[in-house]
Amino acid sequence: MAFPKKKLQGLVAATITPMTENGEINFSVIGQYVDYLVKEQGVKNIFVNGTTGEGLSLSISERRKVAEEWVTKGKDKLDQVVIHVGALSLKESQELAQHAAEIGADGIAVIAPFFLKPWTKDILINFLKEVAAAAPALPFYYYHIPALTGVKIRAEELLDGIQDKIPTFQGLKFSDTDLLDFGQCVDQNRQQQFAFLFGVDEQLLSALVMGATGAVGSFVSRDLSTLWSN
């Protein structure tokens, strides 16, 4: 498994998807967006097509093109481009995962399917396992956002033994206000050296105290990036 030499940590920008006034994706500004993040904000890791990027409101074709543009424009400028590939359809999610690998993304993330919801840990892990298998060379991250998915399986429960089922699993994007659950995720998985990326900007300082290794959000700044600088 050709995983990145550098662990995904620190600030990760949850990118918006720029649109024109007519509702078409404005690909022409993504290069400028990359330069702004790197030069003005000091941020070199991004999370594409997630909630902030309205990925689930885009067509599969649009999601593919957005991912391609970020990878292309970020080459030699960004450290890691993680693509969210979650979808209601397993086949579509697998297609997006495979595409992310083909274009040279650095990782993939997946939310739980939220229409016909998985009601047990094992069902959810089976879904995630099938998606991860479509891109076996890419690090895999679970995107935990129960307020939007309605899937109430605790992240701490899901992480128990997850690498036995998903060998490419590398971490968690935790977008929930349940700090007890987050703290248990960290405390019970320290030896695995997972990436614990917190996704609720308003609670970030509390999450840092509890052991968050990074943050995925839309409010990024040079000042916060110093928290993880060496």
From TrEMBL:
For the keyword Cytoplasm, the answer is: yes
State any GO CC term: cytoplasm
**Under which EC number(s) is this enzyme classified?**
4.1.3.3
Q: Which domain of life is it from?
A: Eukaryota
What GO annotations for molecular function exist for this entry?
N-acetylneuraminate lyase activity
Q: Which Gene3D superfamilies match?
A: Aldolase class I
Would I find Lyase among this entry's keywords?
yes
Q: Which reaction does it catalyse?
A: aceneuramate = aldehydo-N-acetyl-D-mannosamine + pyruvate
Pathway terms, separated by semicolons: Amino-sugar metabolism; N-acetylneuraminate degradation
The record's InterPro entries line, in alphabetical order, gives: Aldolase_TIM, DapA-like
Q: Where in the cell is it found?
A: Cytoplasm
Keywords linked to the UniProt accession: Carbohydrate metabolism, Cytoplasm, Lyase, Schiff base
Spell out the family assignment given in the record's similarity comment: Belongs to the DapA family. NanA subfamily.
On subunit structure and binding partners, the annotation says:
Homotetramer.
Name of the protein this chain belongs to:
N-acetylneuraminate lyase
Organism whose genome encodes this protein: Macaca fascicularis (Crab-eating macaque)
Q: What gene, per UniProt, encodes this protein?
A: NPL
